[in-house]
Amino acid sequence: MEDNIDLAELVKPSILTAQHGNGKKRIAEATESLQQAMHQFVELLNDRARLFADSAQFDSALQDAATIRTLLPGSALGYLCTGYVHCQQGCYAAAVAMYDQGLEAVPESDAYYKHLQQHRLTAIANNSKRVDFISRLPLDIVVTNILPRVKPKCYSESSSPCEHLFVSRTWQKRILQQPDGVNFDFGQEGRTFKKGHDELVRCASYVQSLSGAITGEVRLDELFSRARFSNLKQLDLNCAFSIPHRPLLNGLRMIADSLTHLVIDGYPCDIKLRDVLESCPNLILLTTEEVAAVLPSDACYPKIMHLALHSISDTAPSHDHMDDLLSRFPSLVSFQITPMPESSVLALLPKHCPHLQILYFGSLEFDSSKLITHPGRKGITMAEISGEDMYHQDDLIRFLHVHQNSLERIVIDAEVDVKNRAWKLQHEQVIPEDEEDALLCSENDPTQSETSFPQLVDMVVSDPVPSKSQALITRIISNAPNLKSISLPHSHLEEPHIADAMIDLKHLSKLRVTRSKSRNFVIGGVAKFLTSHITRGLLSTLEELTLHANQAMLEVSWIPLVSNLHCLKNLELVSPDISREWFFILKQIGQGCRSLESLKLGTKRCKLVDGSIESLDELMEELQEDIPKVIIK
């Protein structure tokens, strides 16, 4: 006997091969009563399912509808009921699928067969409806809240096609009203622009920013001949040396009317700076790599505000060359150049570029769009001084003196040459090297007035050898009363003068001590600095501390002092190895630094040595009782 019982079979009329008395009549009556009870039961389930659906109790409604299909699999009623529930949910595609399933399972003679057909057509129509909410909402809501979630930061043919632009004219208008418009990356092209890139060509008139790489014999003008890029403002190209010279410049001329930002890196054939500037007369920002800084004899480019010239020559640009180059760009707000020119060029900047605010001298930040400038302000606010050649100390002293009232951040990664100097640093003061020089004062002579850096809040020192730069670093720190953040190698803290100057700072809240070449960690300067903040107790301003450490630092006695910094909120110990010795120190820190909110240990792909992983989980649980955020990398 089968365990699975088909309830529909139970209510079918029975065929009797034998009968007892009036049993046939009574069986027929009983079967008819069962049929009536079954239909009544199904009708009640159908009514309840619809009531559940109307009350948004969709799980219960679908359960009742499924029961109807089980009881009467050959009836359209169960499929109609399930489709109704899906429609109430707004799931019209699921409703259509259910109606299709019913039309296959139910005979055409069923009383509800035509109902299935009608409801299927209605569900298909509803599934095809689209409500264009974007055209009805206020513009500011669409631009600031909706489109950033829908539109990718950068379109490409492979991952992010421009489908949103072609929903309707209203969508096009709303998307194009965004400040940054459409950004598109065509990837890498090494063959030809005569074919392919259909998505890019399709939305050419909407593209405001375009990026990609071209190699081989690719001709840039072939791309811009296929469509009109009338709104293209930014172009970021990575070029191979083999690309044709003239087609590249012709392509730039074709978009010159709208183009204001251009980045060309890689090895862009044998073009010169004059070629780029003559092809694109409306540029505001220009970044180049391996483009020789050759200019016409009498040309000037007042529209250029951001200029980054990387690898303009194999040797350091001379003073005379830079004097001529800078004189052509009187409106510069940011300037970046490598290789490092002669340090005497620093004195030319106020003369030729009075509006300059950001300087990368001997280094480069490729993404100039991240640079923050302030219209109308004069004086350099951010300076990064680096390079492989040495800086004459006099040039640095003069530069710092001229920009003392505007500097907010300075990065020094340079060796200082103290030979053949006119001035020397003594007790944080600038004095003439010879007494005779004292009689010859110039307009910006730092010996004639005090030098102070009231705006300086962030200082980074990368030079690992402090012997020649120590006096200069000490002078800056001693005369920057509002410094809040300092990053420097451990070797500089070995110098007592630098540590003493840092102790006197009243607003220092962030200290980053990077690794130095020396493995001999001296106690003096660091311990003295930490002890001063421990002594201040709750009045200490030090809240963030980053230490680049190694196993040698574990033997340094000033490391346990960290656990007594009661105001410390964020601590990061950057170490390539994590051993058991670290665990004892971490426990001390967890118990001592009562204000600590975040603790990080290790570095990317650091090694766990000496079986330390066995104790790691236990340590994490113990630390997290005192510190909200603990990260072991």
From TrEMBL:
<dbReference type="InterPro" id="IPR011990">
    <property type="entry name" value="TPR-like_helical_dom_sf"/>
</dbReference>
<protein>
    <recommendedName>
        <fullName>F-box domain-containing protein</fullName>
    </recommendedName>
</protein>
<dbReference type="InterPro" id="IPR032675">
    <property type="entry name" value="LRR_dom_sf"/>
</dbReference>
